[in-house]
C-alpha cells in the first residue's frame, strides 16, 4: 500500500513558498481576498466571490489512484483511474506551481466522532478558498482531535493546469485522490465545492472498512432525542428542510452512521441560495448576512452591493458557505443517536411521484440505490436545464465503492434500528417540469412534520400500483388531491404515460446493480431484479 509522509509533503510546499499564512482568521482571510481582487464585501459584510467558467463540480475530471488498496475495491465503472506514477508527477508539478507564492494553510478536522476522524490540512494559493474550507470543516478549537485521527493533505492549486499526456488526466482540470496516502490534488478549477467533496470521497472509501456507513445526507434531532436523516441531491431541499428551529441541526451534508449513532463530517453548511427567501428559509438567509460567510457566484446590485438571489445570470448553483455555529439551533458536538426516521428527498421532474410515501426497509434500500431526482441546472458543468437523473446512494460521484456495499450497510442499519423510511417529493405536481408547478415549501414542511412526529404511523394509506409504496390518504392541513398526483394532472392519461415512463427508467437504471431488488419495491419495479 502506498503512503505519504504528510509532514514532509507540507514542509516541502511551505519551504518553496514566498510566505505561509497558517490558520488565519476570518478578518485576515477576507482582507487578503479583497486585496488580491478575488472578492468584495456585500452590503451586509459577507464575502462575495465568483468562480469563472467553473460554477459547479467537474465529475468527469475526478480520478482515483489505482493501486493495491483500491484496485479490487473501487467501483471503476463509476470512477476514472490514474496510475501511481502519474499521480506522483501531478503532486510534484502542482507543488512546484505554488513555489514563490503566498500560501494559506488551514489545519482542520473532518468527523465529529473522535473515533472516526481525520486531521485535514488544506494548502492553497487562494485566501477565499482557505476561508471557505475554514467555514466548512471543523476547527480544532471546536472539537478535540481524536488520538488516532488519520492524516489528509489537500493541495489546492486552482491556477495550475494539468497536462493530460504527463498526468493521465482528461484535460487541464483535475481532482485526483490517492486513497492509500490520503492526498488530494485539485487544479484548474476555482469551484470551492471540489475541496469539501474530495474530503467526503476519501471518507466514503475508508468508512465501510471501519464499519461506518458514510452518507450524503443532512441530519437533525428532535426534542425527544429522535434523530432524522435527510438524503437528497442538490436542489431537493436537503439543507432547507433539515434547518428547523425546533430540531437542532447535526449537520448539513455529510455524515457517518456508526454502531452508536450519527456524526457530522463537517463543521459548516454549503447552502444553495438560488431564490433564497427570508420567509421560507430564515436561518440560511440570516447566515448570508454575516461577516465571514462566503457567497459563491451570487450577483450583487452594483450600487448597493445587496445580493440578488433571484439573479441566475452566472449560474443557478449559487451558494453560501458558513460555519454551523452561526445557526440558532445546532446539536451539541455534531453528533446524534441512532436514527428514528430516514427521509429520501427527490425533486421529481416528471410530476409523477406523490409528495410523501412510506417505504418498507426493502423499498428504502431500493430508492437509496436508485437515488432518483431531477438534476438542477448549474449544479454540474454542462447541465443547462433540469433533467431526470439517477445517482446511486444520492451521491454516486463521491461513492468510490460499489453501491451494493453502501446499500447492504443501510439495510443492516435499518433492520437493527427499526427506523421508518419516507420518500418525499419536493418536485413538480400537476404535470412535469415546464407544465406543472413546484410543490410549495409550506406543504412539504407540513408533511415532513407529520412524518417525524409519528402522526402518520397509523394513517390509512393506498398502495401505489407501480412503485409499491404506501401513500397516506389524508394529512391534516393538506389538500387530499395533492397526495394523489394523478388527480392533479389535467389529463390522467398523460399522467399514466409519464408514470409508466418513470417506472421504466427506474428498471433500466437498477439493472446495473444485478438481481438485488426486492419484490416489495413495487409490482413493476420488481421486474428490474429479474
Automatic annotation (TrEMBL):
Its cofactor is Mn(2+). Mn(2+) binds at residues 197, 216, 253. InterPro entries: PEP_carboxykinase_ATP, PEP_carboxykinase_C, PEP_carboxykinase_N. Its main location: cytoplasm. Binds 1 Mn(2+) ion per subunit. ATP binds at residues 197, 216, 232-240, 281, 319, 438-439, 444. It catalyses: oxaloacetate + ATP = phosphoenolpyruvate + ADP + CO2. Substrate binds at residues 57, 191, 197, 319. Keywords: ATP-binding, Cytoplasm, Decarboxylase, Gluconeogenesis, Lyase, Manganese, Metal-binding, Nucleotide-binding. Pathway: Carbohydrate biosynthesis; gluconeogenesis. It is an enzyme of class 4 (lyase). Pfam families: PEPCK_ATP (PF01293). It is found in: Cytoplasm. Its EC number is 4.1.1.49. SUPFAM superfamilies: PEP carboxykinase N-terminal domain (SSF68923), PEP carboxykinase-like (SSF53795). Belongs to the phosphoenolpyruvate carboxykinase (ATP) family. Involved in the gluconeogenesis. Catalyzes the conversion of oxaloacetate (OAA) to phosphoenolpyruvate (PEP) through direct phosphoryl transfer between the nucleoside triphosphate and OAA. This is Phosphoenolpyruvate carboxykinase (ATP).
